[in-house]
Every structure is written in C-alpha cells, then in structure tokens.
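[step 3/7] fold_predict: job queued, chain A
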Amino acid sequence: MKKLYFLLPFILLACKSNTSPVSEKSSKSNSKPLEISYKVSESEVSDFLKYLSSDELEGRETGTNGIEKAAVFLEDYFKKHNVKPYFSTYRDTLTNFKSPAYNIVGVLEGTDPVLKKEYVVLSAHYDHIGVEKKQQPDVIYNGANDDASGVTAVAQMAKYFSETKSNKRSILFVFFAGEEKGLLGSKSMVQKLKKQNFNLYTQLNIEMIGVPMKRDYLAYITGFDKSNMAEKINEYTGKKTIGFLPKEAEYQLFYRSDNHPFFETFGKPCQSLSTFDFENFDFYHHVSDEFKIMDIPHMTAFVQELLPAVTRISQTPTEEITMNK
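[step 4/7] structure written:
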C-alpha cells in the first residue's frame, strides 16, 4: 500500500441449467442476484497467498529479485488458467521507474461480439516494501495483507472466468508493480491504454482483504459517493456486501490507490474494495504482516460473495455502473 502522509497509518489504499456454474434465480429480471454454483477453493486461496507472501520473495519490492520471482509466479498462473497476455507478453514495462519493473497483465476476451469491445478491469498491486535495512530478528516485509491478499482475490476471479466463460465483456486482470513507490504501475499503464483508445467500462481494485471487519457489511468501497458502484454490487449479490466507511472518506483513500489513475484518465467508475477498517489490523507496513495472521476462510468467502457481482458487471447489456452527478 502506498505510504500516505504522517497523519495516516495506512493507504489504500446464463440460462438456467443444472450443469452451468452460473444461473439466474429468475429469468424475469436481469437485476435479480445470480446463483453461482462454482465454489472458490479455500486450499487454493491459502496456497497462493502463502507463496506470494513468503520469505522467498523478500518483500516484493519493485525492481528487486524478490518481485521478479513474484512476476514469474503470476505469469505461470495466467498460463495455467489460459488467461492470455494483453500486450505482446504478460509483462507491461513501467515507463516511470529507473530499474526494470513490470505490471503483469492478462486478458479474457468477452463472449459477446459487441460487449467484448468494452473492458472491465480487475486489479491489485503485487509489490510491497521489501527488506528492513536495520538489523532486527525479522527483516522481511511480507505484505500478506498489503496486498498479496488482493492479488489472491483477483487471481481467483481470473480462474473463475477462465473456467466458466461467463464474461460477455472482456476482462483485464492487472497486477500492478510500483504502487508503494507512488502508484507508478497504474500511472504508467493508463497512458498506454489511453493511446489505444481503450474502452473502459469500470475498474474494481482490491486492497487489503486479508482480515474481516466487525460490521454489518462485507467490505467498503473508496469514493463511495462518486458512483453507484456500491449500490449495484449490493443489487447484484442480493446482500449488503458493500457499505460506507467514514474513515475512508476522512482520509480520501479514493485518491491513494491504483484505481485513481484509471479514474483520472478515463473518467469512469474506478474504485477500490477493502476490508481493512483501521481497527482490525495492526501491522500495516510492518514485518508482522504475514500469512499466518490472514483469515483464509474470510478471504475465500469474500471472493465467493463477489462472484455474482463481477459476473453481472461483465454481462449487463448496458453500462449500469455510472458516475454520480
């Protein structure tokens, strides 16, 4: 997570079928929640997160050998699940960082001949802050919650769509580097996409979802009042999945994560989802942000609950998520 000012402890940041993994509860209204028979694997969530936040990756600082290992791991994951490179390779080289650094970008083309020209972006940053220079018992900033947890969620969504082929719109899956250096990965990438006249519908960026909140909703969204995204996600899931967190508005987290360069460049609903609420996690940018304190059942349930929403976002005949005026 990109470091904020000293005042902030953290920065955020279909046709009914018995065999289909995605079916509608009712054919009468497209606004009805979807029934998703596909089940997110808790063991896969655990294994993925455990490696990505392991000591072997040395804190995944942008430009280091550790993040290179993470990049290879993510490329192999895309290959395994038949997610194709969006650019000539999975690697999108940052134009604003002195050392070689890469966003890892995959795409699943939409199944609808018209809607596939529109893109949904699902993203998270895979970099963290590396190794502590001072001598101490533990020197590796593993970044399990920040943001290996978000990367794990996006990876599971990529697997889901690759297997179900339920996306009518095309989906770009992006793992950003350089977030901790000042949103460098997203800032670099949006300039390339803009030159391509990239047809963005919306972006969901996922930040720090490794531990649950003790609230009556699953997660909050940054820039809650900027669009109707929270309302539509709740409509699509049929649950109170997204709520409003006053701290998010107070700290203006909307501007502090990889959603903002996309919003600023394309003027479309681009927002981050998180379950870090400033009360449930004490190890932001701390060496104790490790796999062992992540809540794997919660993370699995988080992805599972969001599947109807991301599916519907990829399928609606019109762009239902819109900016508020």
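[step 5/7] annotate
Residues 5-20, 23-29 have pLDDT under 50 and may be disordered.
Residues 40-208+256-273+284-313 form a domain with the Aminopeptidase fold (CATH 3.40.630.10).
exit 0
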